[in-house]
């Protein structure tokens, strides 16, 4: 059953940044946009490149390998070649720490 798991300190991911964390054997990317944290699976659904190594433009993450674009809020594909959305995870701040529901 999914439950919230502590991942990092709230200040570990800066505004406009993406960082990857290993959470229960899953590599999760966390982006901070407008003060809100968005968590999603780090593996691009095209050929599994790390999305945390890509660029973040507002709420869009751009895969460094072939340029697929995903909405970090929903995981939805905004631009191919990827066709499948990335999985997203709920986030919350708890006592100064960032937690992800996984
Ligand atoms: S691996 Fe991400 S676009 Fe190809």
UniProtKB/TrEMBL annotation:
Tagged with keyword Phosphoprotein: no
Organism encoding this protein: Rubrobacter xylanophilus (strain DSM 9941 / JCM 11954 / NBRC 16129 / PRD-1)
Location of the Rieske domain: 4-100
One MF term in the entry's GO annotations: monooxygenase activity
Regions that span the bilayer: none
Annotated protein name in UniProt: Rieske (2Fe-2S) region
Domain of life: Bacteria
Family: Belongs to the bacterial ring-hydroxylating dioxygenase ferredoxin component family.
Essential cofactor(s): [2Fe-2S] cluster
A GO CC term attached to the entry: membrane
Keywords for this protein: 2Fe-2S, Disulfide bond, Iron, Iron-sulfur, Metal-binding
């Amino acid at each position: 059953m999914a439950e919230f798991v502590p991942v990092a300190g709230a200040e570990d991911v800066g505004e406009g940044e993406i960082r990857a964390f290993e959470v229960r054997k899953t590599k999760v990317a966390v982006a901070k946009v407008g003060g809100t944290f968005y968590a999603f699976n780090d593996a691009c659904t095209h050929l599994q490149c790390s999305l945390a190594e890509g660029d973040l433009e507002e709420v869009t993450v751009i895969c460094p390998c072939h340029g697929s674009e995903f909405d970090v809020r929903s995981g939805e594909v905004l631009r191919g070649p990827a066709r499948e959305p990335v999985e997203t995870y709920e986030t919350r701040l708890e006592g100064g720490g960032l937690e992800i529901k996984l």
